[in-house]
Amino acid sequence: MSELALETRGLGKRYGRKWALRDCTLELPVGCVAALVGPNGAGKTTLLHLAVGLTAPTAGSVRVLGTSARERPDLVLPRVGFVAQEHPLYRRFRLAEMLKACGRLNDTWDQELALRRLERLRIPLDQRIETLSGGQQAQVALTLALGKRPELLLLDEPVASLDPLARREFLQSLMEAVADGGLTVLLSSHILTDLERVCDYMILLSASQVQLAAPIDDIVGAHRVLSGPRSDVSDVERVHAVVQASHTDRQTTLLVRANGHLYDARWHVDEVGLEEIVLAYLGRSTAYEELAS
To answer: Which residues contact 196 (CB under 8 A, 6 or more apart)?
Structure first.
């Protein structure tokens, strides 16, 4: 069995009486480019912080590349790159000073790689961080993370504040790094169109829990839309997982996670896209939250 990049078992984090993440169990295989999807407050940032040991779990366990970052940060952190949403950089530093500091702090630092990336991006080394655009700062943060030559790269909403061109350039840079080989990526974002272009795996968090965790092709392949005359759907629910149901006076429409083939002639079967699947799960979780409140 190949090593897992990220593994959680019953992982939970509670702040006071509110669970930011609860009963999170998942496995992220090495070599994936994974999307971490969910609405604000779903637990995405909490999961990433737990993974790198920035906070301690209330329940369960999390292991990165086979080891707990809280227990053995010396073994985990040199192998992990982390880019936070706010791109925390020393704003008064010049870029050359940032690279020098990274070289001193990281035994695996690759100065040539960092210099090549910044030269290709046309970001001068004598420029202060505070004078860079948002897109340039995001690229610098990515460069500093990649300069460690990590095995796992964790990105927390890195393109949330960028314009479409800057987002595209950032994601292109990311895919170039992945193409070099040996890198697993977990990318948190709510921009599905971006994620579909670059990711092959998806973890969907909502209501502080994991709703889906699988290769994107498997997720899309397992879901179907059923439509037919309005009817009771209990027979469908006995075989398949009904994610979303809607009814008119004459018609019933179901989005299901199919458990095998769909043979019932009453239903017209259509394929469904990733965005529609994600929105259905998010809508279902919102309904559960409202019922629980």
So the answer is: 216, 274, 275
Phi then psi dihedrals of residue 26, to 5 deg: -160, 165
Residues in the chain: 293
State how beta strands 268-270 and 184-188 pair. unpaired
Give the strands of the sheet with 209-215, arranged side by side. 80-83, 152-156, 184-188, 33-37, 201-206, 209-215
DSSP letter at 128?
B
Pairing relation of β-strands 80-83 and 152-156? parallel
Query: Across the strands, what pairs with 154?
Result: 82, 186
Local structure of residue 61 (DSSP, 8 states): E
User: Could you tell me the two tokens for 40?
Assistant: 């604000």
Structure token pair of residue 225: 């839309």
| E strand map for the chain | 4-15, 18-29, 33-37, 59-64, 80-83, 152-156, 184-188, 201-206, 209-215, 223-229, 241-247, 251-257, 268-270
Instruction: State how far the Cα of 89 lies from the Cα of 86, in Å rounded to an integer.
Output: 9
Phi, psi of 14 (to 5 degrees): -120, 135
**pLDDT tens digit string along 46-74?**
999 999 999 999 999 999 999 999 999 99
Query: What's the pTM?
Result: 0.88
Closest CA to 9 of 57, 49, 52: 57
pLDDT lower than 70: segments of the chain: 1-2, 87, 285-293
Q: Taking a C-beta distance cutoff of 8 angstroms, is the pair 139, 121 a contact?
A: yes
